[in-house]
Amino acid sequence: MKKIKILIADDHPIVRAGFKQVISDMPDMLVADEAANGQEVLNYIRKKDYDLVLLDISMPGRSGLEVLKDLKSEKPKLPVLILSIYPEEQYAIRALRAGASGYMTKASAPNELIAAIRKISEGGKYISASLAEKLAYYLDGDASKPPHETLSDREYQVMLMIASGKTVTEIADELCLSVKTISTYRTHILDKMKMKNNAEITLYAVQNKLVG
Fold first, then answer.
1. In the chain, is it the N or the C terminus that has fewer CB atoms within a 10 Å radius of its CB?
2. What CATH architecture is 147-207?
């Protein structure tokens, strides 16, 4: 039996171990390698062939979305399943637009993960029923995009972090970027969304169910 060779990319060893445990119970799957950051992911895919990459969306340094774009430009046919602690509303549509074959939250059941891996490795796409509804709405040709859709992926990430109450310094630490860089992103966010301060960002994110 040919096994589905998988590269797991997540910066938390305990999370990687959990995924590995679930996958190793399957006779048709094999965790070939593990990566702790985006650069390791790219190094591995340049050296080896995989059938699928499980990619965490929030890793230190470059975000999972940025890594996904690099990965797809180098190996366009390599299927990628995005795993995230964030609800679908926040990142799923951006991830699929960037080339992901599927998006799952880490709260999903193990059997859902296995089903997603099998479907994607056969060339399919994997999304939940609730996400399918949202995608239909987005693809409906609605010309009036919500303001947060005008943000770049990194600006969007920073916007969500501001909305969840994090300071510029905390965001800089978490993303391994300078305070100055985060402040610049914040300025762009306020300009693009025609807002004056963090309170308006937070209110907008809550009203649009982008944060809990």
1. N
2. Orthogonal Bundle (1.10)
